[in-house]
Specification:
Layout: E1 5-13, E2 16-21, E3 24-30, H1 32-42, E4 46-51, H2 63-72, E5 77-80, H3 86-94, E6 99-102, H4 104-108, H5 111-120, E7 125-134, E8 137-142, E9 147-152, H6 153-163, E10 167-172, H7 184-191, E11 198-201, H8 207-215, E12 220-223, H9 225-228, H10 234-243
Parallel strand pairs: 1-4, 1-12, 4-5, 5-6, 6-7, 7-10, 10-11, 11-12
Antiparallel strand pairs: 1-2, 2-3, 7-8, 8-9
Helix pairs in contact: 1-2
């Protein structure tokens, strides 16, 4: 059985790690490279760096940060935010990123998923899906949760898998930062649709929330503030999960 993964997410704005609630009211949480090094030492399985305003501000994401992270850590990491073009995705991987995360760029140009997968393999392509409840059900949003797409979550998940995505990073905007638990309803919907790995994001507040996510089909669980502010120790979390029957890398 494949081990379940614990992933730390570093949302980056203006070169600094920030965290908010429901994608708003951001506060400074540290330096991305320094935090990446810290998490690597503490036993995190993977890192995700997301330039959260790159798409809104229509600029390229953090090429320099990728180089610095690649030189200082030995665990896999994903970079995302503002990746609208094939050339930028290629550059980020060539400079050291293990994977690229597409969100707004994939919605705008779905063929981008296939082109990256053909070049580097599906394992290098993560499609980040930000969704929340609307009158239509779970709807996909882009531009850091600011822009409704009109696309239903179920339809977009099927599409990205068919196009060659290697995994889905599923974030509940409703749950983001509130620390009341992951959106299990959303997770179950997606888990029943796709066969590729699903990373659940948004809502982790205590160890039990990670266990609940893994018991309901998540392949990996991502969190930010509970790790940034040492509210949950990674080693203790892994010990707790192992003692409760979850296969993790100790």
């Amino acid at each position: 059985m494949l081990a379940k993964r614990i992933i730390a997410c570093l949302d980056v704005k203006d070169g600094k790690v920030v965290k908010g609630v429901n994608f708003e009211n951001l506060r400074y949480s540290g330096d991305p490279v320094e935090l990446g090094i810290r998490y690597s030492k503490e036993g995190i399985d993977e890192l995700v760096f997301l330039d959260i305003t790159a798409s809104v501000e229509k600029r390229k994401t953090m090429v320099e940060t990728v180089e610095k992270v690649a030189k200082n850590i030995m665990i896999p990491f994903t970079i995302g935010g503002g990746i609208w073009e094939l050339d930028l995705a290629f550059e980020l991987i060539y400079r050291g990123a293990d994977k690229v995360s597409l969100n707004s760029g994939a919605v705008n140009n779905p063929e981008l998923i296939t082109k990256i997968a053909e070049k580097f393999g599906s394992q290098a392509v993560v499609v980040a899906i930000d969704a929340k409840r609307t009158g239509r059900g779970f709807e996909v949003f882009t531009h850091s949760g600011r822009k409704a797409t009109g696309i239903l979550l179920e339809d977009w998940c099927r599409t990205v898998e068919e196009l060659g995505a290697g995994e889905i990073l599923l974030t509940s905007i409703d749950k983001d930062g509130v620390k009341e638990g992951y959106d299990i309803e959303m997770l179950e919907i997606v888990r029943n649709i796709v066969t590729i790995p699903v990373i659940i994001s948004g809502g982790a507040g205590k160890k039990e929330h990670f266990l609940e996510a893994f018991k309901n089909g998540a392949d990996a669980a991502l969190a930010a503030s509970v790790f940034h502010y040492s509210e949950i120790e990674i080693s203790e979390l892994k010990k707790y999960l192992f003692e409760n029957g979850v296969t993790v890398r100790i």
